[in-house]
Write a structure and sequence with these properties.
3 helices; about 25% helix; alpha+beta
């Protein structure tokens, strides 16, 4: 699923509102249908993605491609087999936006 900003999209649709579209019955119908679809699309209550990384990481000798460490967001112990922190849900992708 891809979240979009419908309010922003409704602002940019004004660029399409031209005499050419208004003078064509088919184009005008499609234009009006697009506006209706945007205005009536369901709203999803979504939170921004929190990015985190592994702090104090250590290589696991039994599986050298995996490591352990602590979530930089909540401080809970994690293993690298997960893409999201099991405690706080942060995306464990190594991005540093939320570094302390």
């Amino acid at each position: 699923m891809r979240l979009i900003d419908a309010d922003e999209l409704l602002q940019t649709e004004k660029l399409l509102d031209t005499d050419i579209i208004r003078n064509s019955k088919e184009a005008n119908w499609l234009y009006e249908q697009m506006l209706y679809d945007i205005a009536n699309a369901p709203t999803i209550d979504a939170q921004p993605v929190v990015h985190a990384y592994f702090k104090d990481e250590k290589i696991r000798p039994e599986v050298p491609t995996h490591y352990t460490g602590y979530c930089s967001n909540c401080g809970k112990f994690q293993i690298s087999e997960v893409n999201y922190c099991c405690q706080c849900g942060a995306k464990m992708d190594g991005k540093e936006e939320n570094h302390d």
